[in-house]
Amino acid sequence: MGRLEGKTAIVTGGARGLGGAAVDALAAEGAVVVIADMLDEAGAARAAKLNAEGRKAEYVHLDVRDTANWAALVSGVVARHGRLDILVNNAGINAPVTIEDATAEQFRAILEVNLIGPFLGMKAVIPAMRASGGGSIINMASNSTQMVLPLTSLYGASKSALANLTKSTAVHCAQRGYNIRVNSIHPGAHETEMLLGNGGAKPADIPQVRSLINAIPMGRMGKPSEIGSVVVFLASEDSSYMTASELFSDGGLTVVSFGADPAQQ
Ligand SMILES: NC(=O)c1ccc[n+]([C@@H]2O[C@H](COP(=O)([O-])OP(=O)(O)OC[C@H]3O[C@@H](n4cnc5c(N)ncnc54)[C@H](O)[C@@H]3O)[C@@H](O)[C@H]2O)c1
Q1: Fold of 8-247
Q2: Average pLDDT for residues 210-216, to the nearest whole number?
Q3: Is residue 66 within 6 Å of ligand 1 at its C-beta?
Q4: Which residue among the candidates 59, 155, 178, 241 is catalytic per the annotation?
């Protein structure tokens, strides 16, 4: 029997990448998984594949920036499945740009998805999780909360704010006795379209980003499934005493010291 049998989970940005891996891992542990994304075709295809394999999944269109979308998603999930236990706030965007090149519009756009999106999600699910007797919220931050490069200006700021919001929400829920745990995962470089691109420009080809990847102590990028298993750990009772935690999964990169050029270290 899976560790998440009888549980219902929502994964934002679950159509592909790290979110897709989280969907697969949660479903493999027996959860009913709701893939919430704007990539309708890829999301529906992932749900169909899982169902054909005997798992339980469905796809719902969600723009994480939209409060009404969140309300409809959560009420629909509770109506169809009777409960909500797990939220993975995974949807995110990147904009590798320095403070001098960045525009306010770029910053607002990244904050809307990476910070306001999870904020809206947490507000939307807390009442449903309380009604279900508790739950686990997992926010996908980044090791850029610790690993700073000139190009992580906007992205790192959004993820650092998300990590902080994670902790205040965790303490709030714990002190209110909601039995809702809230933690963040801080991935390093992983093999997804965010870093490797999709036929177009590859952030991984930017020299500074490439130097960073070359400096990973374990000598390789992470596989999406290696984040999926961390998500399952935080979603399950295996982490029952963990809340307000930051879990880094980055091949050891965060603790390496850098000078101006990581490739020279
Ligand atoms: N790949 C990495 O190396 C890495 C490292 C650290 C953190 N992360 C974080 O992990 C998460 C997933 O990244 P990924 O690499 O899988 O990226 P990805 O680009 O492959 O996938 C992101 C998903 O989020 C969805 N999405 C984007 N905006 C959305 C919105 N407004 N509403 C709903 N869905 C939306 C996309 O459609 C896509 O399915 C992100 O939060 C990212 O910041 C990734």
Answers
A1: Rossmann fold (3.40.50)
A2: 87
A3: no
A4: 155
CB-based contact 26:235 (threshold 8 Å): yes
Instruction: Look up residue 82 and give its DSSP letter.
Output: S
Domain chopping of the chain, boundaries: 8-247
Within a 10 A sphere around the Cβ of 177, how many other Cβ atoms? Answer: 9
Residue with tokens 């290696």: 226
Q: Which of 260, 192, 248, 180 is nearest to 224 (CA)?
A: 192
- Comparing 48-57, 206-215, 243-252, the range with the smallest average pLDDT is 206-215
Active site residue 241: no
Say how many Å lie between the CA of residue 169 and the centre of ligand 1.
Answer: 22
* Cα angle, residue 171 at apex, residues 136 and 76 outer, rounded to 5°: 35
The per-residue pLDDT for 75 is: 98
Rounded-to-integer distance, Cα 150 and Cα 157, Å:
12
Task: Compute CA 95 distance to the chain's CA centroid, rounded to the nearest angstrom.
Answer: 17
Protein residue whose Cα sits closest to atom 23 of ligand 1: 13
As given in the structure block, the two tokens for residue 55 are: 């798992």
**Which atom of ligand 1 is found nearest the CA of 114?**
41
Q: What is the pLDDT at residue 259?
A: 61
